[in-house]
């Protein structure tokens, strides 16, 4: 078996988003490679119960990580772009100690490949490539540009686009792009962040996956039962979704699962538009509990215009729901040509018009929605189940070791 050393700055089976993905990557990789893992000390308690806990080693400072988040979370509330940017001090502390530990482990186990899996942000350079063996980094998300019709949301969202040059300078100083054997990116738009001279190293590997394909939701194709799942922030364009609802028949309802800084604003907008009786704000629920909302829905709607991933889209597809997404970033990659409906992002009005037209199509022909949901499930089976993703990484490792390029 290929001997792999993986570092995961975030990996936690009890969390959501990046930490949960980090855990699932190492959980599945160990089935196809001989794997040792360096994780962050803050995740030690949760990872100690993993069936492969004996192959996990720890670096970094839990105290520093917790102290930074204690300051940045209340300061920036739910602006995770900014919170993550200020994690850099903790990240560098982790990287320095992880490299020292990696060198000791390499002397003992003689690894074939090193893989920096998380953080998913490509802005933070890595020292792991200094280990002296072929190194893979990613899959990385983020760094995406805005669709031209939605650039006004950059100010409202409070992203850190204006300091992207800092990340570029850090990579230049670290020289890590030149040392990587492969740079994995979530999608083509995330890959555009990598300097052109290194594009031959770029491989697209979607960040997210799903554990299993479920029985098709009983209401699949019923467009009177719409559901959205996600954080309530500007770029998710839930306001556009509410405006589309105004133009749809009275029997069309929308359940919004999630919380965020825009929740009060969106609740007020639903009242202003006169659709509040048709909208249910379910609030935040753990990811494992979102499936009951998917099983009760007929169509999944997700008009987010700055989504490098979009795990909830894959969850909906796994439940056999027809999905309606914005044609930008991760969701567009997930649905492909036949796995869902991808809408124009030329402008908010174009997105709204597309939402209305797509829902009206399913209202007129629910069977077409059910069929689309079945095709979505087949796409999940082919590309997005976690075991398949681990197999894809093994293919990449073997390409590296055999000296093959893209």
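Sequence proposed for the structure above (406 residues):
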């Amino acid at each position: 078996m290929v001997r792999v050393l993986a570092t995961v700055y975030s990996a936690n089976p009890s969390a959501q988003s990046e930490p949960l993905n980090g855990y699932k990557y190492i959980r599945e990789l160990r089935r196809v490679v001989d794997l040792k893992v360096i994780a962050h000390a803050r995740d030690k308690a949760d990872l100690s119960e993993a069936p492969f806990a004996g192959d996990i080693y720890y670096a970094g400072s839990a105290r520093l990580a917790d102290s930074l988040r204690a300051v940045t979370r209340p300061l920036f509330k739910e602006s995770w772009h900014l919170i993550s940017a200020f994690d850099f001090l903790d990240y560098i502390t982790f990287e320095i100690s992880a490299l020292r530990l990696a060198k000791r482990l390499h002397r003992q186990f003689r690894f074939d490949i090193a893989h920096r899996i998380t953080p998913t942000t490509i802005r933070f350079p890595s020292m792991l490539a200094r280990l002296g063996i072929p190194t893979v980094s990613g899959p990385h998300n983020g760094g995406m540009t805005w669709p031209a019709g939605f650039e006004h949301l950059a100010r409202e969202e409070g992203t850190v686009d204006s300091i992207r040059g800092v990340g570029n300078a850090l990579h230049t100083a670290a020289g890590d792009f030149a040392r990587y054997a492969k740079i994995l990116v979530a999608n083509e738009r995330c890959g555009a962040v990598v300097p052109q001279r290194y594009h031959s190293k770029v491989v697209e590997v979607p960040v997210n996956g799903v554990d299993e394909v479920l029985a098709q939701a009983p209401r699949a194709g019923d467009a009177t039962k719409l559901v959205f799942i996600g954080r309530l922030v500007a770029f998710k364009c839930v306001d556009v979704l509410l405006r589309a609802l105004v133009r749809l028949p009275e029997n069309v309802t929308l359940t919004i699962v999630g919380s965020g800084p825009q929740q009060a604003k969106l609740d007020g907008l639903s009242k202003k538009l006169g659709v509040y009786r048709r909208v249910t704000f379910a609030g935040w629920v753990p990811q494992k509990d979102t499936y009951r909302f998917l099983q009760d829905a007929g169509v999944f709607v997700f008009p987010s215009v700055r989504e490098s991933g979009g795990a909830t889209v894959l969850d909906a597809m796994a439940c056999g729901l027809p999905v309606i997404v914005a044609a930008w970033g991760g969701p567009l990659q997930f649905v492909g040509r036949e796995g869902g409906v991808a809408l124009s992002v030329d402008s908010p009005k174009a997105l709204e018009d597309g939402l209305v037209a797509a829902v009206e199509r399913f209202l007129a022909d629910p069977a077409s929605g059910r069929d689309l949901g079945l095709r979505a499930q087949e796409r999940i089976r082919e590309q997005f189940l976690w075991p398949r993703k681990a197999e894809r990484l093994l293919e990449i490792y073997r390409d590296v070791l055999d000296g093959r390029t893209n």
